[in-house]
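It would be a great kindness if you could assist me with a short task in structural biology. A protein sequence and the structure tokens that stand for its backbone fold form the material at issue. I should value your view on which stretches of the chain appear to form regular backbone elements. The record follows directly beneath this note.
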Amino acid sequence: MDDDTLSRAFAALADPTRRDLVSRLTLGDATVGELAAPYDMSLQAVSKHLAVLESAGLVTRRRDAQRRPVHLDAETLGELTTWIDRHRRAAEARMSRLDEVLEHAGTPDTGLTDSQETSP
């Protein structure tokens, strides 16, 4: 996934309504009308949210007879998850190394024996 696509996808998911639409689409395809039902907004407003998700590659729309169901692109969502997981693992590895350093910093290795450290 290139940087432009990644940026568009994260920007699209920055909006809580669009995140909710994505969550609802994980349950299955739905029409704009079905997706708009729980919101206090027009079909046009929901369509605009879907257009942002579509341009980010997160959803697709297709014609199925009289219906135009919206479909979540699980592959794109998977690519976002892979990107996040890679960076999470790297951050966890850094934190683990820091924990080790801090743990060893609490027990200084001066080269002196216990009896030499306590004598005046």
Remarks:
- Residues 74-105 form the longest helix (32 residues).
- The mean pLDDT is 88.
- Strands lie at 59-61, 70-72.
